[in-house]
Amino acid sequence: MTQDAGKVISAQDRARLDQIFMQVILDAQAQAQATRPAQSGSLAAMFHKESVTDALQGCAMLIAGWNEGRIDEAGLTRATKAMRALELGELAARLERLRQIDEA
Predict the structure, then answer these.
(1) Tens digits of per-residue pLDDT, 24-40?
(2) Residues 28, 73 contacting (CB under 8 angstroms)
(3) Would you say residue 69 lies in a domain?
(4) DSSP H or E run through 53
(5) Residue 42 lies in a domain
(6) Which of 30, 13, 29, 27 is nearest to 101 (CA)?
């Protein structure tokens, strides 16, 4: 596994932290889906839909990585970038803290 693939999480830590990880991911998905375009118009709606899609795909990548025993770096980057585009900066910071989930 390359370094770019993400941080490795042990099976024991995954079992212990699974509920916390999934709460963060489910909250991120729900909040992204609850957002509305910042402006009216079809162009704003198109960019908003793209950001929501990126957020959800990033979360899916994080779940897939978690199931493989790692924090998927590409998924984390994609999800946090999309959350910031949706003006959900605090949620993006929560997602970024998943890198340290096993350090508590």
Answers:
(1) 999 999 999 999 998 89
(2) no
(3) yes
(4) helix 42-67
(5) no
(6) 13
